[in-house]
Amino acid sequence: MTRSHLIAVSATASVWDGAERVRLWSNYVRSLEGAGLVPLIVPPLRIHEVADDILAACGGLLLTGGEDVAPQLYGAEPHAAVTTTHPMRDATELALFAAATARRLPVFAICRGIQLVNVAMGGTLLQDIPSQHPSSISHDQPGLRALRRHAVSLAAGSRMAVALKTTELDVNTYHHQAIDRIATGLSVTATAPDGIIEGAESVDPKWWMVAVQWHPEDLIDDGTPWAGGLFAAFGRVVRHEG
Question: What does the alpha-carbon distance between residue 185 and residue 71 come to, in Å, rounded to a whole number?
Fold first, then answer.
């Protein structure tokens, strides 16, 4: 096993069945394995100085979905709809992202991950789409996680458009927050029909940093031509295959 195959994967921790446990949706693991990568799961940590040591052993970073990013991190008062935050996870992921940025390691960020990246780089968030950006599209729809709910348009020539070989696709959606002000250093490369930002990438052509609001880890087996495309692209760049 080489360093370039190991991916640091952020996880959460919560009380389940009477004990606090580290938790990660297993489809992230399956998606990474399908791309020829091996996950190194990183739970919320009290000691954030180890983030650089963790990334020194890895070829990339995957930031996963989960709780809301604390509004205080982008200078906002919490909206009434913000009910689940995890300060220790915020701090751990910010430290991991800072270490990955310094090393220019490939970063793939999903759902909460795109929001964390935007905040880390100086942007802000819509704390509650239904009340702050009313739309005919429901971005937090219950039901099957792999059910594609709305369209997304990708910027031609963007890393994600190249990886998925399309500029239009339908995605699954279950989030009540999204990027508001895009951070300096990021470019919006995917949007929903109602204007909600669905994807962003680093403007640095030498740094593969791709972030999406939908959940590609739940779509790898749905049979569409682009199923697994983002994870496959992540795997190639981590292994320096182009």
Answer: 21
pLDDT band at 148 (very low <50, low <70, confident <90, very high): low
Q: What is the pLDDT of residues 162-194, one digit of tens each?
A: 999 999 998 888 778 899 999 999 999 999 999
pTM of the model: 0.94
Can 215 be counted among the known catalytic residues?
yes
The residue from 5, 139, 176, 215 that is catalytic is: 215
Of the residues 111, 139, 198, 201, which is catalytic? Answer: 111
| Dihedral of the alpha carbons of 126, 146, 201, 45, in degrees to the nearest 10 | 70
Told to judge if 240 belongs to the known catalytic residues of this protein, a careful annotator would answer no
Domains and CATH numbers, the chain: 3-238 (3.40.50.880)
Is 58 one of the annotated active-site residues of the chain? no
Please tell me the distance from the alpha carbon of residue 35 to that of residue 95, in angstroms, as a whole number: 25
